[in-house]
Design a protein that fits this description.
It is a single chain. The chain is an alpha+beta fold and about 240 residues long. It folds into 2 domains: about 160 residues, no CATH class; about 30 residues. The radius of gyration is 28 Å and the shape is elongated. The termini are far apart.
């Protein structure tokens, strides 16, 4: 008969699982905003790029850059890192721009305030500061004027446009943007004779000898860079 009785070892009690596991949170908040005015109809010639630049020069804190519509080969370009092919096209299309203009195009395009396929943008830094690499800070306001051609009359329709945003947001940025829009609109009205956008039933202006002439209807496009006739839509023939 054994002197000691062999006992079964006692198993430790299970440790209860915590209801919430401690974890570190990582959050990136991006906020972009933009404001745009109504368009102003302007009758300009082949020097319209200089006209657009002059409208912003008096209000910009630095240089003013003019960004023309993107070529057809960059039609799929988009500032979206989740789509690498579109993002690479976007970088290639705007690689020649300065930091302020590149930031302005990206901000306005993200919020759909700018149509890069038809809009010509004259932009600069309007308020705020830039970082050491030349890019605007999140509370800086960039922009100027955006313009496109009226296909019916051939006039240039110009509107004031500003944008801001990035990593962070400040409450007074939108108020600053509203003040800048007012200044840009006043500049537009002075340049265009204080006329807001007119109806589309105006007579087609005669501008013979300027720009490319449509072989179909004989209408002059007013600029050498046009690809399609503003009146009938036919493709223009280049020499």
């Amino acid at each position: 008969m054994p002197l000691f009785k062999r006992t079964k070892p006692v198993e430790p009690a299970p440790v209860p699982e915590p209801e919430e596991v401690p974890a570190q949170d990582y959050v990136l908040k991006l906020a972009y905003g933009a404001k745009s005015s109504e368009g102003v109809r302007m009758a300009v010639g082949a020097n319209f790029l200089d006209v657009l630049r002059g409208l912003v020069t008096g209000l910009a804190l630095g240089d003013v850059e003019v960004v023309e519509p993107r070529p057809v080969e960059f039609a799929q370009a988009s500032p979206d890192l989740e789509r690498p092919s579109e993002a690479l096209q976007w970088v290639s299309a705007h690689s020649d721009l300065g930091p302020v203009a590149r930031h302005a195009v990206m901000t306005l395009e993200i919020v759909d305030a700018l149509d890069p396929s038809v809009d010509t943008l004259a932009c600069g830094l309007l308020a705020g500061d830039i970082d050491t690499t030349g890019y605007p800070l999140f509370d800086a306001v960039v922009g100027g004027v955006a313009a496109h051609w009226d296909e019916a009359t051939g006039d240039l329709i110009v509107r004031a446009i500003v944008g801001w945003g990035g990593r962070g947001v400040r409450g007074d940025t939108e108020r600053t943007a509203s003040r800048l829009i007012n200044g840009l609109v006043n500049s537009l009205r002075m340049a265009a004779g204080a006329g807001l956008i007119a109806s589309d039933d105006r007579p087609v202006p005669a501008s013979a000898g300027v720009g490319l002439v449509c072989p179909s209807c004989g209408y002059s496009s007013a600029v050498e860079r046009a690809f399609y006739c503003p009146k009938c839509g036919m493709r223009l023939i280049r020499a």
